[in-house]
Specification:
This protein is α/β, with parallel strands linked by helices. Helix content is 40%, strand content 19%. The structure holds guanosine-5'-triphosphate and magnesium ion.
Length: 292
């Protein structure tokens, strides 16, 4: 990992003034120095912006992370690496989408910084974060693109779909409209992203049970009917399922990567067998033509 480069880029890259050209330039400028598996589009290019969300809001409430306590009881087949400095990782691009104020940034903040801000600070354009995790001795880097849900940013968001390995669509369980709008997000995402993109649906703010406007079953049904890979409710406030969200994301992407590698291996085997057959046939033909 290039520390100097990361430090340089350790700035917030969201801004009211970002336009499509600038966004495209930022995305295209990603250098591809991660492991080379980009042919499949499963693994996107590496990009070493390593910025974290702004800390202007000092109202950070460190909540008891329920989920961490949960995880401690389970036997882990992964390890989260907050300070990974190596450069031997697989890199995947993820995009967080959904209506304004559903908690996209809060979910990332909770998972990476283990904190929660109750004051709303809208994402202006987009933010970038990285999340390192080790699965079966392989380090994965999740490049998390957090997008602003305000309507003025919608045209910017489409720039991020291309090459995304996973799209995390978020609604808030206390906001019916944000659930209904998932249809629009999904449609738009499917228009611009790779056909093999993985999709998660997250019903956030499930700590607000008394204000609930969307039943969990509705989220489950929507997931089933729309070919979505995973559905979960979460709470960035109390930490419920927030770490799990990124762990599951890593697992599904790693599984996909292994399947791709296997396919490649089999393809290569078939090709070399065919080469061998052709060679034998050629030798045979030569012999026949030289004979008698
Ligand atoms: N009770 C509760 N509040 C939450 C939760 N997640 C986020 N919030 C609050 O919801 C508001 C919006 O959160 P953000 O994370 O900024 O939402 P966002 O989706 O990133 O919003 P945009 O960047 O504008 O698209 C903030 O006031 C958060 O404190 C949650 O799980 N429970
Ligand atoms: Mg945000």
């Amino acid at each position: 990992m290039n520390e100097e480069k990361d430090e340089q880029n350790n700035e917030q890259i969201n801004s009211n003034s970002v336009d499509n050209t600038k966004v495209n330039k930022i995305i295209q400028n990603q250098s591809s120095d991660s492991l080379s598996v980009s042919e499949s589009d499963l693994v996107s290019k590496r990009f070493s912006f390593n910025g974290l969300n702004n800390d202007k809001d000092l109202n950070i409430e460190n909540q008891n992370n329920k989920e961490e306590n949960q995880n401690n009881k389970e036997e882990k087949d992964y390890e989260i690496l907050p300070d990974y400095k190596g450069d031997d990782f697989l890199s995947f691009k993820l995009i967080m989408i959904g209506d304004v104020s559903v908690g996209k940034s809060s979910l990332i903040n909770r998972a990476i910084k283990k904190s929660f801000k109750s004051a709303y600070s809208p994402t202006l354009g987009f933010d970038y974060f990285s999340y390192y995790i080790k699965i079966k001795n392989k380090v994965l880097k999740l490049q998390l693109w957090d997008t602003g849900g305000q309507e003025i940013y919608q045209s910017l968001v489409t720039n991020f779909y291309r090459n995304s390995s996973l799209a995390i669509m978020v609604y808030s369980i206390d906001d019916r409209k944000s659930f209904e709008n998932i249809d629009i997000w999904l449609k738009e995402m499917r228009t611009y992203s790779n056909p093999d993109v993985k999709i998660f649906l997250i019903g956030n703010k499930n700590d607000l049970e008394k204000k609930r406007k969307v039943d969990k079953e509705e989220g489950e049904l929507y997931t089933k009917n729309n070919n979505i890979d995973l559905f979960m409710e979460s709470s960035a406030k109390n930490g419920f399922n927030t770490q799990k969200l990124f762990i599951e994301a890593s697992k599904i992407l790693y599984k996909d990567y292994l399947m791709y590698k296997n396919k490649q291996k089999n393809k290569n085997k078939v090709e070399s067998k065919n080469d061998e057959k052709n060679k034998l046939k050629n030798d045979d033909d030569k012999k026949k033509s030289s004979c008698c």
